Amino acid sequence: MSAQSRGSLDGIQLLREKRKQADRAKLEAETGESQARYHWKILRDSIRTTIDAVAKADAKEIEVSHGIHHLRKLNHRLPLKQVLYNKVHKEYLTLDTKFIRIFKSDGRKKDVVDIEEDFNRLSFASNINQIVGWTHNGKHIVVMAADFEVLSVTKADTNLYSVAYNASNNEMITGGLGCLTSWVFRYGNRHLLPRRTALAPSFSNEQFNIITLEETASRSQKAYVACNSGVMVFNLYEGQFLYYKKDLHARRITAMLFFNPLKYLVTAARDGSIKVWNDIWRLQLVFIGHDDLVSSLCLYPFGPFIMSASYDCTIRVWSLETCDEADCIETEEPIEDMASTFQEEVFFSFCLNYVDMWKVEHLHQIHTSIGFRVDDIKPTDHPSFPIRSVLLCKDASVRVITPPTGDVLSTLLMDKKRHLVNAAYSVADELLFAVFENGDIIKCKTNSNPSTIADTWKCSQPEKACNYLLMYEYVVDSIMLKDDWASMFRAITVQNVKAAQDKPRESSDRTLLLGGRKDGFICVFRMETGEMSFEIEAHGSKGVLYMIANSNQDQLISAGNDNIIKVWRLYPYAEEALAPLMSFYCSQTPLHMCVMKGQLCVAFQEHTTATYSIVVYNLTSKRRQDHPPDDDHTDSITGVTSCPRMKLFASSSIDGTVRIWNEENKLIRVLKLNAVPTSIGFCSPKGDLLIGVGNHLHKINYKAYMPKAKRFKMVTMVFDEITPELPNLINEDKIKSWTQDDVKRLRAAHSSFKFTHFGDILSEDEELEVMKEKIEKEKTYKALDKRDEELMNIRDGKIQAKKPKVNRKIVKREAFKKYMDIFYDRPKIKLPEDDPYEMDTAVEIAEGGPDEEDEFIPEKEPTGFFPAAKDAEKRESVPGEPLQPAYPTLPGGFIPNSVLVHLLWPKHEPVIPPSEDEYKPPELSADQLAAIAKLKKKNLLLQDSSRQWRTKSKTVQVQETMNLNLDLLDEDDEEEERPKESLRLLDKMKQVMARPPTPMTPEPEVEQHTEQPTKPHAKKVIKSTKSTKSLQKFISHPRLPSPPPPPRQKTPPPPVRKIPTPKPPTPPNPLPNFILQFKGSTWFEDFFPDADHETFPKPWTISAFCNMLLPLLRKSSYSHKKGVVDAVRTLNLQETLPNITQVVQAVLNAMNPLKDPPTCLNKEEKDFITSGLMMMQSFGLYDKNFVMELMVQFLDGDQDIRKLVMDIFCNLGLQDPHHYFLHELDAWDVWSIDGDGRKQQIKARCKMWLDRWLMAFKSYLEATIDKMKRGGSVHGRLNTNTPKTPPTPKSILRRLEDGSEDKKGPRSVTVTFDSPLDRAVIDNATYIEAINYFCDMELEKELAKIQKDDASEKIIEAKNTVLVLPKITGKPCLVRLGETHTSRCHERRETNLSTNYSYPQVTARGHQPAPGTIHGFAPSINLPMKTLYMNPFPSPIDIYDSWNQQPILLTLKSSQKYFVPQQSYVMNEFEQFPQF
Q: What is the per-residue pLDDT across 433-462, written as a single tens digit (0 to 9) for each?
């Protein structure tokens, strides 16, 4: 490349760089950030959308419940025979009497397969993904592919009663009559061949219905077969019956399960008992709980549990470790069978007609068996040591465990009578300190199990005993070693790095033991001697309740019974180790605390006010973070803990829940347990939890509750690898002197049984043998593949022969010699002698005649190519005829099979008798020909008749379509199986098509016309078409061809019946006007397209049309529903409908569906509600349902609906001028009702209210009638301005006590009833009258209240010396009392309390003020005071607290307080008691 070209390229590159820089500068000017940051922002924003969506989805489902939950129900119409789970395709297969139905993993229907072969049971071969079908009490086994293609059919020797798949060896195990057979898959897994059959000698007549297998690939694999109340054991590999264990149960065994991890055989019997046996048949456990036959046993998907199903309609979960029932689920019907898959959270059970899908939410499982309740869990947080958990147990013991495995490292076991108060553990020094109720502190070493007690510190002063112990670990060295920058800084500060490394240096780490005492002091102990090195007063005489260490910020946080939380600065190297930093008061007692960097989580509890809240304080920013009260626990809190790495808090309560909170104190998960957690603690940086449940320690894996947003962040986080610690073995020498009870307590604590696979792992010898077989098979397969490849290459011509050249003459000579040797030296074949009676011999052979030498046993089954011998025919020979072969023979001398079959089993042609219905050409008479000519002249009439017939057919078809559409509104979504009625019609059509056509009538043969035409054909055609016209009876189908005109005139017609004249077609009837008025409407055109007199269904009456419209209200859209309701209302106005009650009920049903009722939020739904209410009002049927619907719509509607409802109530006769009824409905709390059943709950409340007031109204009427019968009279006020009066008897209005007329209303008339009313008034009382009675009663209460207020004495206002006034701008000081803000000397300070108040005269002599009067005030008081905040963590919710609303405590208010003399004047004794 020349220098010039190189220079030009450099110039172009320079221009490109300048262009990029300009674009980059322009982008920075527009966005204010660099290009890299801009692109990174785009990438981050694109990911943030997904993260936010995931976070929102997590926030919707915060509750996770432990246990078994019902997931879905799969209904079937036919009885179920078998249900399988295909774990390869994640599908469920159900088998009934006709079909195999396939469902997806979530329960959705996928496909339906028709059964080709006859079988009623299924088994799934998971290793090869094939399905095996078999028949119970049958012999055939069908092998099918995954798509149910039949691969082969195998026949067993005996009837089959059970089939199990052996996944370890890919075999099928079948149970027959007294035998057990192993079947192997061969020929590409397409065929099943029997491998071994094991016979039970003494049980040849027993049916093997229940089989369970040991999950192992070992040659010693066993199969267990239930037989009555015992179990038979077989060796599958050898096919050998081993032994029989009898009388395992009192009654017959109905279910079995082999729990392979523990080698336990679980059996269940007819009496409901479940027993667990070990490998040497010793009884381990007995579970009693079922009340009926146990129908199924299966594996619990997670942990050492089993599940059982019974006819008592329950599913129970049993723990093999705690020997107790873990869960119980009730079902609707008895369960036939149940199955589950290891590590699969969904399992199924099925009954007669449906399948239940269940989901297992396994939140926690036993981690360490303790034997006693765990009261507290304290995790360690030393950065240089793995996390350990210290357990404080109920039996006065302290146990140190390693969380990854749950093994016990060390145990401090004390006497049960000594009450353990608290304990502290130093993981770096392997020291444990425990304080007891008498104040003694025990120091022990935890490097052995049990712990070694090193010292005991006696407490001489009980009032100074410790309530709490805390181990504060100040760690510097390990952090500096991990920090490269700190190491570099340390090397720079030292002049000689090598000298600094060689010089021994003391450790900078410090470990302090602190104690919180009963007298409120916090003290520091010397760990070597137990002496107190420092103490400081913290919480007064009420004592220290709780202490936690915040080592990241060198802080100690303490809480006491005085409801005060204090934050201390801790100096690990100083003698005075503690200095106060902050303190704040709490309204409730802080029961539990935990800290996460600068955030403090506190659990408050107060039983009297049912307060169980969690609050987070940010000690750095002085912010308090709360959450809604609905998120709090509902019972006592048993502990709180924190996970700093994941920024999570967790709390447990005896309400059975564990709640997870984020750093902002927002609830993100609620873990509902089926037990009560007594303690809680995080045990790993990822968020694994340990909880005390019962007498054991349980573990919750972080994957069970961690939100997805947090788990996404964990992908980018680095966690230290957790190395399990080896447990310390129990020192047998130390426990020799212990009591048996203490030894038992010590050994009771151990790690729980855990397993990750259900099948066995082979031993080394077995694994080696399997590997050898595998290697040999691979070699053989490779050789076969190589051979096949070579053959294919030879076939394709890719390989050519590479043989050496040979002498052709020598080869030809040798070849010719070998050929001649083969030809001449071949064995001579002796021909059999000719049989003169070959036919007889062949017949005898075919008939299976007996042989003298070998006795022949005929086969019972078909013989294959030849038919049955009994059907062969013997051919008779003709005498004198020469014996010559009448059939060809092969050179070998034998007869071909086809010839033999033709001779011995000849095919006889069936003799077809002459048919009586043989077709004969009809002979037409002259009259018939004349009639045919007449028909041609009246062709128009025939066309009109045909058109009329088609019109009627079309009308019938349209009417059937309308009926079908109306019926479809009531059908379910699931398809129904209907009988195939179309086959009958198809057969008739085939019969018609098989009939020969009518030939043309020949002209010369006139004589044949005397015969009658064939009538059966005409009858059949008439029957198939279902025509009612008499004219068509003379027309045959297919129609006769027209003969030539001249010969037809000469043919004399035969006698024929007279053809009646057809009736003229009736004119079409037009649709009535009550139907035509809706033509053109959207709803009408959608439901009745092309409606006319031919297609619209009959009868055409208003009632029939209305009944046709009512079903449309159920499935149509709301816009169509409104049109239908308006149409029904119009029809009722034109002509009163007879079925008003049915119409109103249909509209109410449309307005109150079970799900998603119409609301006012949607315009179409609101219009439908308005039309429905107006229609029901126009009908005049004011029953209870209508009134309830009005009330519900008023409560749930908008302003327009409420106004419409009130107008309807006024039209119905509501008399409520003061709006008491409206205020009563508005006072109901209906906004808190939520969910699908909201409207039903509101309607139930309206019904209860109406029934209560109707009952009260009837009681009032009954009392009034009784009073009138005793001679009294009743006065009432009748409103003459009622818009509409119901047709029922009038109600008795409000009585007046004085009997005078009520003249308050300008339109009311006083009515007096002197004679008793009929008791029918009570029975005919309406709900509108009950509402009016309610309004009258409310008016009575209001009037009585007004009269009482007028007559009562005025209450003297209570004195209050402290009022809250607006804050005044000025220096914060307590200003002059009584004058500054009540006098008028300062205009800018005048308030509404200013008055010309003058103090009483005060003199030194001669006049003394009256007792109680105010005197002796100083002119002013000026006390500068610093603002003191009693609540350093203010919260927005504090303004709603009661103490913030009441101006009582002066020190708790920030606004100024003032002294008002007028309201603080105290009367003297003579004014207070004037009677003295």
A: 999 988 899 999 999 989 999 999 998 888
Long-range contact list for 578-584, CB < 8 A, 24+ apart?
Answer: 578/522, 578/524, 578/534, 578/536, 581/555, 582/619, 582/1432, 584/1430, 584/1431, 584/1432, 584/1433
The residues facing 1458 across adjacent strands are 1363
Please give the model's pTM, rounded to 2 decimal places.
0.56
In 167-322, beta strands by DSSP E: 171-175, 179-186, 191-199, 211-213, 222-227, 230-235, 240-245, 253-259, 264-269, 274-277, 283-287, 294-299, 305-310, 314-319
Q: Is 189 helix (H, G, I), strand (E, B) or coil?
A: coil
Which pLDDT score, from 0 to 100, does residue 862 have?
47
Q: In sequence order, which residues have a C-beta less than 8 Å from that of residue 337 and are 6 or more positions away?
A: 83, 295, 296, 309, 349, 350
Contact present, 10 and 17 (Cβ < 8 Å)? no
For residue 1266, the SS3 value is helix
- Sign, CA dihedral 465-466-471-474, equals negative
Q: Which of 847, 842, 838 is nearest to 867 (CA)?
A: 847
Across residues 257-286, what is the average pLDDT? 92
Residue carrying structure tokens 């959450």? 627
Confidence class of residue 868 from pLDDT cuts 50, 70 and 90? Answer: low
- Mean pLDDT for 1259-1280 is 65
Distances (CA, A) of 551 to 377, 582, 596, 622, 720: 19, 17, 10, 19, 21
Q: In which order are the strands placed within the sheet that holds 222-227? A: 211-213, 222-227, 230-235, 240-245
Looking at residue 1355, what is its pLDDT?
Answer: 45
Q: Which tokens belong to 976?
A: 């129904």
3-state secondary structure of 464: helix
Predicted confidence band at 1423 (pLDDT cuts at 50, 70, 90)?
low
Token pair 């078909």 is at which residue?
A: 862
Contacts of 83 (CB under 8 A, 6+ apart): 92, 93, 94, 95, 337, 339, 348, 350, 355
Cα of 397 vs its chain's centroid, Å: 42
Letter string b/e over residues 245-280, b meaning 16 or more CB atoms within 10 A of that residue's CB: beebbeeebbbbbbbbbbebbbbbbbbbbbbbbeee
How far is the C-alpha of 1170 from the C-alpha of 1174, rounded, in Å? 6
pLDDT of residue 12: 75
User: 403 vs 1324, which has greater pLDDT?
Assistant: 403
> From CA 294, how far away is CA 61, in angstroms rounded?
36
Q: How far apart are CA 388 and CA 409, in angstroms?
A: 9
CA distances for 589 relative to 240, 562, 593, 602, 917, angstroms: 72, 8, 11, 10, 109
Token pair of 713 as six digits: 């962040």
Q: Is the pLDDT of residue 164 over 90?
A: yes
Cβ atoms of 644 and 597 closer than 8 Å:
yes
Q: What is the dihedral of CA 951, 955, 957, 962, to 10 degrees?
A: 160
Distance from C-alpha of 977 to C-alpha of 131, rounded to nearest angstrom:
26
pLDDT, tens only, 748-767: 998 988 776 666 666 677 77
Count of beta carbons in the 10 Å neighbourhood of residue 809: 8
**E-assigned strand segments in 696-765:** 696-700, 750-751
Spatial distance between the Cα atoms of 1274 and 330, rounded to a whole number of angstroms: 61
Residue 34 phi, psi (nearest 5): -70, 165
Stretch (H or E) spanning 1196: helix 1184-1196
Report percent pLDDT > 90 for the chain: 29
User: Interior CA angle at 626 toward 621 and 631, to 5°?
Assistant: 155
Q: Residue 31's Cα: distance from chain center in Å?
A: 48
State how far the Cα of 294 lies from the Cα of 272, in Å rounded to an integer.
5
Q: Is there a contact between 389 and 403 (Cβ–Cβ < 8 Å)?
A: yes
- Distance between CA 249 and CA 1142 in Å, rounded? 63
Mutual angle of helices 1184-1196 and 1140-1151, in 10-degree steps: 30
In angstroms and rounded to an integer, the radius of gyration of the C-alpha atoms of the chain is 51
Parallel/antiparallel/unpaired status of strands 667-672 and 657-662 = antiparallel
